[in-house]
Amino acid sequence: MSHTKNPTLMYYRDSLFGALLATEGLTELAVNRPNQIFTKVNGEWREHDATISY
Q1: Count of other CB atoms within 10 angstroms of residue 48
Q2: Range of the domain at 44
Q3: Does 1 score more than 70 pLDDT?
Q4: Model pTM score
């Protein structure tokens, strides 16, 4: 199976979630409302302010 890279998806992944996705122990990431991201790390939820409005 070949993997095709999608530059647009990579941009959004890296610009919106890049640093969070690199968190050791990360098991979940949730965007429930504008400007707020939650991560679950080692079984514990953490809230992060973010500039995401969609």
Answers
A1: 14
A2: 25-54
A3: no
A4: 0.74
Q: Is 42 inside any structural domain? A: yes
Tokens of 20: 């969070």
Contact 33, 43 (CB under 8 A): no
CB 21 within 8 A of CB 39: no
> Does 44 map to a domain?
yes
The amino acid occupying position 54 is Y
- Start-to-end CA distance of the chain, whole Å, equals 32
Q: What is the pLDDT of residue 52?
A: 83
The domain total for the chain is 1
Q: Does the residue 34 lie in any domain?
A: yes
- pLDDT tens digits for 26-54? 999 999 889 999 999 999 999 998 888 76
